[in-house]
Amino acid sequence: MKEFLQFDKMITPSIIKFVFWIGAALSVLFGIIQIFAGAASPYGGGAQVISGLFTMVLGPFIMRIYCELLIVFFKIQETLQEINNKTPRE
Fold first, then answer.
1. Which of 23, 50, 69, 78 is the most exposed place for a label (fewest CB within 10 A)?
2. Where are the domains of the chain?
């Protein structure tokens, strides 16, 4: 509990994993919505269908990269904290 109250232990990396799954699901959902909206368009929604496919494929991929970059920042912080703990105090 002491580590939690003094911010020595980070909880955000586990939250980031949850955010990834929510973002990936939303990307797929919005892609499906775009595909159906494009298919229902009276004047041709081919571009919207293609856009929906790209959203479904690239959305989770981009979300994964973003979340991994956030986790890298926390890994850097953990490593720096370990180095700080190993260095002798004067």
1. 69
2. 12-85
Cβ-contact 8, 81 below 8 angstroms:
yes
CA–CA gap between residue 90 and residue 78 (Å, rounded):
22
CA distance 51 to 44: 13
31, 56 contact by CB (below 8 A): yes
> Which tokens go with 24?
């990936």
Give the model confidence (pLDDT) of 26-83 as tens digits: 999 999 999 999 988 888 788 999 999 999 999 999 999 999 999 999 889 889 988 9
DSSP label of 88: P
**2 half-sphere exposure, CB direction, 13 A CA radius:** 0
Residues in the chain: 90
